[in-house]
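Notes, p. 3: input format for complexes.
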Amino acid sequence: MKQRTLSIVKPDAVRAGNAGKIIAEIESHFRIVAMRKLQLSKAQAAAFYAVHAGKPFYNDLVEFMTSGPVVVMCLEGEDAIANYRKLMGATNPEKAEEGTLRKKYAESMSHNAVHGSDAPETAAVEVAFFFPGCDLI
Ligand code: GDP
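Output follows (137 residues plus guanosine-5'-diphosphate):
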C-alpha cells in the first residue's frame, strides 16, 4: 500500500554535513513529496514531541532539536512508514543494523541523525505539522 511518512534530518546530521548524503539515500528508496530546511522553535519542538512530555529525556530532546537547522521531508512509497523506519535503524545506534542511516550517521541515542513517523495516524499529523496540502506535490 502506498503511504506517506515524515522524515527529519536532525541537527546533529545537518551540522556534520551529512544531510545531502542522507537525502540521496532516502531518495533512492522513496519519492520526496515535499522538503524544507528550517530552524525549529522551542514551542514547535515541544509540540512535535508532546507524546514524550514528562519523560526524563524530553527537555534535552527539545533542546537538541532546536540546537540547529533540520531538514524535513514528506516521503512516499510502498509501506513507506515501516520501510523508512527500517532504513533509519533502531533508536539507539549501537543496536542499529549495518547499513541503516542511524548506524552510519547517528552519534548516540539522543543525537541519532534522523526521525521517522511510527504509524499512519502519527504520519498524517506530522506531515500536516510541517506542510500545508498545497506543498505536497
Ligand atoms: P524513534 O521513533 O526511534 O525516533 O524513537 P522515539 O519516538 O521513542 O523517541 C523520539 C526521540 O527521543 C528518539 O529518536 C531519541 O532521539 C529520543 N529518545 C528516545 N528515548 C530516549 C532515551 O531513552 N534517552 C534519550 N537520551 N533519548 C531518547
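Residues 2-135 form a domain with the Alpha-Beta Plaits fold (CATH 3.30.70.141).
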